[in-house]
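Recap from last week: sequence in, structure out.
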Amino acid sequence: MNKKQLTYFEKRLIEERARVMKELGHYDESFNSTLQGADGDLSSYSFHMADQGTDAMEREKQFLMASKEGRYLWHVNQALGRLYNNPEKFGTCESCSSAINFERLDALPHARLCISCKEKEEDAKRR
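Predicted structure tokens:
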């Protein structure tokens, strides 16, 4: 991979990291807001059991989405580490040592496996 491509992927990964950090900041704000502030009620207790269920479901969805973004951030940080620590091997499959297609890296800049090795890994997980 040439220097221009490495610079391109560095920029992409840094942009992705900034986007995810911003998204996690939004989740942090929503987790810190109280139920009382969210609906304007003076009491933090819902008056109906269905309201309590809806509130609990919405909080659970937010936690799941924040967890997913956190895992994605970890992958992006790992890719940046690979790029900075060993730039000559960035874009090389960790399994078979062949070059990962530019199109795959462009779509998924944190990819560490080529398509065929990733398919093998997913097939093994299904069994």
